Amino acid sequence: IGWYNEVVDENFKFPYKEDTLAVIFPQHDIEAIHDFELHPSHRPKVLVQTAGHVAGAAYYYQRKDVQPDPWGEETKIFGVSVHPKFGGWFALRGVLIFKDLQCPDLPKKAPDDIVPTHELRKELLERFNFRWQDWTYRDIILVEGKYSEHQKLYFETPPKDRPQLIQKLKRELK
Predict the structure, then answer these.
(1) How do strand 94-98 and strand 59-61 relate by DSSP bridges?
(2) Which PANTHER family does the UniProt record give (predicted)?
(3) Is 87 exposed, middle or buried (0-12, 13-18, 19+ CB in 10 A)?
(4) Which of 6, 35, 125, 171 has the CA that lies 20 to 30 A from 104?
């Protein structure tokens, strides 16, 4: 990023540390899959929370992580990822698959298990599944950063109304 930022005008600079890695990919066969992409059968093309877990980025807490199961078979419980620095204040938006690059000796890193007790995991999953609108599941641990009030407003706004919100925020922030 530093190399790039050194040669572009101020309004094109990336707001990252100079030693942040960025790549362009002309020599590799890469498949980019966004979190919202579906197969024709409507099955997701990638389970990004599972991908984040196996990559060691964030722990994906699921019903199986709370034993004994306190909810019963009839209750649907969705899992949620928690990042060691940002708790639930982050998103996994997709994966890049380097189809022509193999790393047979790459060590596997387990994600940090930062919600270690049965009761806290139960609380996390209940907050996420039954009270996700109050944002509290995101603070299940102490976090280093959260979404701004503008970001929260954006995510609380139905997608069809977001273009108008963006225009309103642009006017207000000038």
Answers:
(1) unpaired
(2) CYANOCOBALAMIN REDUCTASE _ ALKYLCOBALAMIN DEALKYLASE (PTHR31457:SF2), METHYLMALONIC ACIDURIA AND HOMOCYSTINURIA TYPE C PROTEIN (PTHR31457)
(3) buried
(4) 35
C-alpha separations of 123 from 7, 130, 133, 138, 151 in Å: 49, 10, 15, 11, 25
Partners of 81 in the β-ladder: 60
Exposure b/e, 100-139, CB count within 10 A at least 16 = b: eeeeeeeeeeebeebbeeeeebbbbbebbbeeeeebebbe
What are all long-range contacts of 37-43, with beta carbons under 8 Å and residues at least 24 apart? 37/94
Determine which helix (DSSP H) or strand (DSSP E) holds 3, and give its type and residue range.
Answer: helix 2-7
Q: Angle at the Cα of 20 (from 86 to 105), degrees rounded to 5? A: 85
Torsions phi, psi for 97 (to 5 deg): -110, 115
Q: Taking Cα atoms as reference points, which of 115, 131, 125 lies closest to residue 62? A: 125
CB atoms within 10 A of CB 51: 19
The model's pLDDT over 40-90, given as tens digits with 9 standing for 90+, comes to 999 999 999 999 999 999 999 999 999 999 999 999 999 999 999 999 999
